[in-house]
Amino acid sequence: MNAPYEVLLYYKYARLNDPQAYAASHRKLCEGLELRGRILIASEGINGTVSGTKGNCAKYRAALDENPLTMGIAWKIDEENGHVFPKMAIKVREEVVTLELGDEDFNPVDLTATHLKPAEWREAMKEDNVVLLDARNDYEWEIGRFEGAILPEVPSFRDLPKWVRDHRAELEGKKILTYCTGGIRCEKFSGFLLKEGFEDVYQLEGGIVTYGKDEEVKGEGYEGECYVFDERLSVPVNRTDGAKVVSRCRHCQAPSIRYRNCAWMPCNAQFLLCEDCENAMGRYCEKRCKEIDLMSRAAVVG
Ligand SMILES: [Zn+2]
Ligand SMILES: [Zn+2]
User: Fold this and answer.
1) Which residue from 82, 200, 236, 278 has the least number of CB within 10 angstroms?
2) How high is the pLDDT of residue 127?
3) 272 C-alpha to center of ligand 2: Å?
4) Which of 180, 249, 262, 277 is catalytic?
5) Distance (Å) from CA 292 to ligand 2 centroid
6) pTM of the entire predicted model
């Protein structure tokens, strides 16, 4: 593809002593380059995903690469035909990923597990006494994950510490390989696992996205697609012959990676819906939503 736009995904754990001031200058930079997306800034670093023209994205990358506070970012770059965000939102938060450890909080600059490059990860997955631990939310691993991974049923990242404490037996004495979309959550989560006393912990450098782009491993061992937090909703990972779809349409159970939001606005739930079912019964997560929606529409008209 030779498209005119780029989508950048990146993070950098750092020490930003004045996150508000950093955010103000960052906002100016992004406005000047007409970027759109979402950026979180905290004293522990920066986490962002933005879209823009190729030229402006290059200038943005150069600006961050030249700044001593943020240099050394491993950029994930996709080509696109246009913006994949409706606007730009830059927010200052307590953390760049919300683990909410409170008094036990730490900066991954000080504590994180060993990184494995894609090829090292592929080999480590095949070892005995290994557990793969998905560090993402349930709606993310629903459409794709590494084969055989432990999939914690947590709706958000902040629920993972409790999950770990409740499931120690599954992890104790094992070599733990943990992964997430782009690597940022694992920097923190793997540090948390070390703090909890697990000793043999590793993380996938650059996350699933980097693993899928790697020309040597080509996403081997990953099944389904990778959920992403923009209008694309998911991107392919496994480019080997073994690629398969692991998620199913909520209504008919046919293989599907097609996320939609329930058309009844008060519900608006995100769910998997195949094209046939959408054509047959509309964009509703369940029958009840459809009934209420049609009734309320009739009431407005009538
Ligand atoms: Zn269906
Ligand atoms: Zn619904």
Assistant:
1) 82
2) 96
3) 12
4) 180
5) 10
6) 0.84
Q: Could you state, in order of their start, the residue ranges of all structural domains in the chain?
A: 5-92, 102-235, 259-301
180 belongs to the catalytic site: yes
The amino acid occupying position 200 is D
CATH code linked to domain 102-235 = 3.40.250.10
Q: Enter the DSSP assignment of 82.
A: S
> For residues 72 and 231, what is the distance between their CA atoms, to the nearest angstrom?
27
> Any idea which ligand is nearest the CA of 251?
1
The pLDDT assigned to 92 comes to: 97
103-107's contacts with Cβ under 8 Å and 24+ in sequence apart are: 104/195, 106/191, 106/195, 107/13, 107/15, 107/44, 107/45
Sort 268 into a burial class: Cβ within 10 Å, 0-12 / 13-18 / 19+.
exposed
What is d(CA 160, CA 259) in angstroms, rounded to the nearest whole number?
Answer: 24
Residue type, 122: R
Cβ(47)–Cβ(40) below 8 Å: yes
- pLDDT (0 to 100) of residue 302: 57
For the record, the structure tokens of 222 come out as: 């990953």
Ligand 2 centroid to Cα of residue 287, in Å, is 8
**Cα distances (angstroms) measured from residue 113 to each of 33, 49, 102, 122, 178:** 35, 24, 20, 17, 9
pLDDT block averages, 10 residues each, the chain of length 302: 90 95 97 97 96 98 96 93 95 92 93 98 97 96 95 95 97 97 96 97 96 95 91 88 84 92 93 94 94 86 60
Q: What is the pLDDT of residue 298?
A: 81
Query: Cα(189)–Cα(113) distance, rounded to whole angstroms?
Result: 9
Task: Give the pLDDT score at 1.
Answer: 63
